[in-house]
Amino acid sequence: MGQISCLPWNACFRTLLVSHLSPPQDLECLDFILGLIGPEKLAGAVYFDISHAQVKERLLGRLACSKCELNYHRSLPGAQPVARGQCDACKGPLAPRLDDTKATVARRLDSFDAKTRPVVDRLRTLGLLETVDASLSPYLVNKQVMPRHQDDLRSPELR
Question: What is the DSSP secondary-structure string of the chain?
Fold first, then answer.
């Protein structure tokens, strides 16, 4: 799971996205961001709520093309290749990502619980947290988020 780093975080984006896959690293990072831009300038934070079991299923089901690196999923609707085991774009072979092992996923989830759960709690206390049901398909999750936040997630040059 990637994480938003404190220093290169782009303050022009007004909505934080918080999930098992891309959380602010910890409370120190959140405090840095809020100190940099001020909580009044943050439009909010979107928390992608999904169970640990579903995160495990999604991460362990990821596939990547060994040639062009396009991403697929074994079972997630809309993310499966047309031909099993073959990239739709370049016909290259698909394989699980090397870093998607049960042990790695377990460590990532432990890290999330230790570092990011307090961030979620702080954002909720500040009244900045919107929770989105991320157990749905990616299309439906995006449909929940984008209409309300597309301007906040767009860089200033595109606003």
Answer: ---B-TTT--TT--EEEESSSS-BSSHHHHHHHHHHH-GGG--EEEEEE--HHHHHHHHHTEEEETTT--EEESSSTTSS-SSTTB-TTT-PBEEE-TT--HHHHHHHHHHIIIIIHHHHHHHHHTT-EEEEETTS-HHHHHHHHHHHHHHHHS-GGG-
**Entry field: residues in the chain:** 159
pTM (2 d.p.): 0.68
Q: How do residues 71-128 score in pLDDT, each as one tens digit?
A: 999 988 888 999 999 999 999 999 998 889 999 999 988 888 887 788 888 888 888 7
The CATH H-level (homologous superfamily) assignment of domain 1-51+100-159 is P-loop containing nucleotide triphosphate hydrolases (3.40.50.300)
Q: Where in the chain is the domain with CATH 3.40.50.300?
A: 1-51+100-159
Q: What is the pLDDT of residues 108-120, one digit of tens each?
A: 888 888 877 888 8
